[in-house]
Amino acid sequence: MDNSQQCQAVIKDFVEHSLMAIPSELGRLAYVASLRDVGSECYRHDGLSALYPAGAVQQALSLCHRELFLRVLEAPLERLEIDLRVCLGALSGGFERSLTEWLEQGTYCHLAPADLPRYVVELFESNMAALLAVLASARFRIQPAA
To answer: Which of 61, 63, 83, 140 could form a disulfide bond with 43, CB atoms 3.0-4.6 angstroms apart?
Structure first.
């Protein structure tokens, strides 16, 4: 197989065996971003590395990261709010704890691929901060008496 075919095989394997189990686009993006070492910008996935050449794994994960990021960025905010709810609810701490962590720690600020223009990353971060604020404010809305 040439490099392009290897990369496509890695992507197919990764999508079928890793990403499909994650119930939201933001969750998939967060997962791929977690595979990247921010210092070296290298991705690490032991399962894929055991089956495919390192270069094909790096290229495939980088492409997946970029594609997922752009899909999330291009999503209408209404759909992104729903996806964010699903993402936070699926995390191990549950919705409330995950929401608090994402707000306080700025977790969403580490989701962008490294090779994007700064203004694109800032747009994403602004959208995420606004949606997180909306979700946080919803916790404090007073419910009308029945």
So the answer is: 61
